[in-house]
Amino acid sequence: MNLTVLDAPTEWSRFAEGSIERGMLLALGGLLGTVLRPKPLKLPDGSRAEVEGIDTEGRILVQLVSNQGAYKPAYRNKVMADMFKLLWLRASVPTAQRAVLLVTEVTVQALGGWVARAADDLGIEVYVFDRDGAVTPFLRT
After folding, report:
1. What order of strands is seen across the sheet that includes strand 98-104?
2. Strands (DSSP E) along the chain, which ranges?
3. Does an H or E element contain 21, and which?
4. Side-chain half-sphere of 3: how many Cα atoms within 13 Å?
5. Cβ(33)–Cβ(68) under 8 Å?
6. d(Cα 119, Cα 106) in Å, to the nearest integer?
7. What phi and psi values does residue 97 have, to the nearest 5 degrees?
8. For residue 122, which phi and psi values (nearest 5 degrees)?
9. HSE on the CB side for 51, CA within 13 Å?
10. 90/3 Cα distance (integer angstroms)
11. Tens digit of each residue's pLDDT (9 = 90 or more) over 31-70
């Protein structure tokens, strides 16, 4: 199944000025040397999905886990759901080459055990956004 990347109604879609999501996309885009913005996607049946970040060529797909504050076990479910979505999007967007998951420092805990190994084995690149706004590759220990 092929998904069609559509134009967003606004450049930043639902990410407000000053939001952590906007900061995450700007920082990751700076590191990767490309512009990343949220975009809606159209499925063949007419329904829609959204990718939280995609470059202008449609090669890099990004999902964000922007949780802050104290860690909650439910964050692990969000990480795994976004990994699943990235796999589907990478297989369904004809131009897609890279699947990237960007998490906050708080949600790094969700990558414990087999979750980080699964991301690595499945070719999902994981990066960490820190409280100073820097992005670094996640290093599995």
Report:
1. 4-5, 37-42, 48-54, 60-65, 98-104, 124-129, 135-137
2. 4-5, 37-42, 48-54, 60-65, 98-104, 124-129, 135-137
3. helix 20-32
4. 24
5. no
6. 18
7. -125, -30
8. -90, 0
9. 35
10. 10
11. 999 999 999 999 889 999 999 999 999 999 999 999 999 9
CA–CA dist 56, 76 (Å, integer): 30
- Residue 99 φ then ψ, to 5°: -115, 125
Q: 109 and 77 in contact (C-beta within 8 Å)?
A: no
In this structure, how many other beta carbons lie within 10 angstroms of the beta carbon of residue 63? Answer: 23
The pTM of the whole model exceeds 0.85:
yes
What is residue 42's three-state secondary structure?
strand
Q: Hey, what amino acid is at 119? A: A
pLDDT digits (tens, 9 = 90+) for 79-126: 999 999 999 999 999 999 999 999 999 999 999 999 999 999 999 999
DSSP codes of every residue in 63-103: EEE---SS--THHHHHHHHHHHHHHHHHHHSTT--EEEEEE
Tokens of 9: 């109604």
In one-letter notation, the amino acid at residue 75 is: Y
